[in-house]
Amino acid sequence: MSREESNSDDEHQLAVKADPKYIREQKLKESLSKVAKYIGGFKLWPLLNDDCKRMVIDNLDYKMRCRLAITSKKHYALISVHPIHIHSIAFTDVSIPKSVMVVIEFEKDANQKYEIMFSEAGNIWKTLRVAMRKYPLEKSRIKFLPNVKQVFMSLNDDNLIKWWLSKVPKDLDEFQLIPRDCSPILSSISTEMLTLPQIVCCKKLCIYECYKFLNGDLLKLQARRISLNIQHVSDTEINQFLINWQNGKYVDGFKEACFFSTKRRDLRILLSGIENIIMWDDDFKEENSEIYAILKRRCFVKTCIQIPSKLNSFNSITANFDNHMINIFATGKAMKRDGKQYTRYRMP
């Protein structure tokens, strides 16, 4: 490093350290460190009386107070009546008619500001994320969220999932039920959940190890993009899915499907009854090198085939079979050039 670069870095560090915001943050860290040392760390937190706890809460920011409040009813009661300093509140117009944005700043020049939008038109939120497994349903004031289009859940309780899905429209763009913090969800959710219109009719569906699919359940789904990490989707069920597509019985606008299982798949069963299969040999890969390169980035290419439609053989899907993973993509689309049909291959 040159002397000029070193001097520039030193000047930058001095400028940062001279920033009032930096000074406040350092004082807060120092104060919290002294408090934690004095009380012997938070392992002794239950031994403190309420007055001592209030002194600690005085030094917590809004986010930390929220985290502490959800640990117990007593903490919630303690924090809910404890005043919090708000540096500024701003009301600004937004592009949505009859709506206003409220911006809250807890400290001057804070890195993070909290924004809340209010609208006379009602709820305008597009995405719902739920990971709270002990949500107080009986005390909730939520009636309906008409504008929600995406739902992400980390739950394994039938009642909670049904309750939240009853608050959103039936025509979701996306629904995901995935593990929380990479811990597997228990396989305890009933198959009745698959009959809910919010799941059956959503355009993009991702479910991780939660349901036991019964015969016919997969074929009822209307999703254009499907990702299922589920043990109980059988080879026979997936085979019927492929046969249906070849016979023209598929969801309009279908893009892709991914099925994962820890069990080895039986290729003989998966391809039974499928006609005019085109193998991805070296010549096919070379002629379609662009799509082959994309496919290799998205999955482990092993046994890869092209399945043409019986309605129009220039339309086709790509199916790649690994030992445990099956990837299906709507890649082949019928096109015309100078009055003649041909297939254009593109990854969806």
Walk me through the topology.
Blueprint: H1 3-18, H2 20-38, H3 50-57, H4 62-69, H5 73-80, E1 88-93, E2 99-105, E3 114-119, E4 127-130, E5 150-153, H6 158-165, E6 174-177, H7 197-200, E7 204-208, H8 217-220, E8 225-229, H9 235-246, E9 256-260, H10 267-270, E10 278-279, H11 282-287, H12 289-298, E11 303-308, E12 316-321, E13 325-337, E14 340-345
Parallel strand pairs: 4-5, 5-6, 6-7, 7-8, 8-9
Antiparallel strand pairs: 1-2, 2-3, 9-13, 10-11, 11-12, 12-13, 13-14
Helix pairs in contact: 4-5
Protein name: Sdz-33 F-box domain-containing protein
Pfam families: FBA_2
InterPro entries: F-box_Sdz-33 (IPR012885), She-1-like (IPR042317)
Q: How would you describe this protein?
A:
The protein has 348 residues and is α/β, with parallel strands linked by helices. It has three domains: 3-80, no CATH class; 85-122, no CATH class; 123-345. Helices cover 31% and strands 23% of the residues. The protein has twelve helices and 14 strands. It has helices at 3-18, 20-38, 50-57, 62-69, 73-80, 158-165, 197-200, 217-220, 235-246, 267-270, 282-287, 289-298; strands at 88-93, 99-105, 114-119, 127-130, 150-153, 174-177, 204-208, 225-229, 256-260, 278-279, 303-308, 316-321, 325-337, 340-345. Strands 4, 5, 6, 7, 8, 9, 10, 11, 12, 13 and 14 form an eleven-stranded mixed β-sheet that branches. A three-stranded antiparallel β-sheet has the order 1-2-3, with no helix packed on it. Strand 7, helix 8 (217-220) and strand 8 (225-229) form a beta-alpha-beta unit. Helix 4 packs antiparallel against helix 5. The two termini are 47 Å apart.
